[in-house]
From TrEMBL:
Name listed for the protein in its UniProt record: 60S ribosomal protein L44
InterPro entries in the record: Ribosomal_eL44, Ribosomal_LSU_eL42, Ribosomal_zn-bd
Keywords: Ribonucleoprotein, Ribosomal protein
Molecular function terms from GO: structural constituent of ribosome
GO cellular component terms attached to this protein's record: ribonucleoprotein complex; ribosome
Any Gene Ontology biological process: translation
Lineage summary: Eukaryota, Fungi, Dikarya, Ascomycota, Pezizomycotina
Entries under Pfam families matching the protein: Ribosomal_L44
UniProt entry tagged with the keyword Ribosomal protein: yes
UniProt organism field: Hortaea werneckii (Black yeast)
UniProt record similarity statement: Belongs to the eukaryotic ribosomal protein eL42 family.
C-alpha cells in the first residue's frame, strides 16, 4: 500500500471549472468479475468434467508490484478523472 494524500490541488477539465481546484483522491479497485461474461462461460464449460486444466497457466511473473492507479474527483463540480 502506498501513502497517498487524501486531497490534491490539480487542473479540473469539467465544463464548470476549467481551472485548478481541490480534488479528492481515491485508489482504483477492479470490480467483481461477472460469472456470465462470455469468456467465463466458455472457460467454465471447457473446465467441467474430466481432463484437468485446459488452458495454459502463466508462471513467469516478472514484476513484484503493480502501479497504483489514482482516481481524482473534483470537490466543486464532482467531475471524475
Amino acid at each position: 500500500m502506498v501513502n497517498v494524500p487524501k486531497t490534491r490541488r490539480t487542473y479540473c477539465k469539467g465544463k464548470d471549472c476549467k481551472k485548478h481546484t481541490q480534488h479528492k483522491v481515491t485508489q482504483y479497485k477492479a470490480g467483481k468479475a461477472s460469472l456470465f461474461a462470455q469468456g467465463k462461460r466458455r472457460y467454465d464449460r471447457k473446465q467441467s468434467g474430466y481432463g484437468g486444466q485446459t488452458k495454459p497457466v502463466f508462471h513467469k511473473k516478472a514484476k513484484t508490484t503493480k502501479k497504483v492507479v489514482l482516481r481524482l474527483e473534483c470537490t466543486s463540480c464532482k467531475t471524475k478523472a
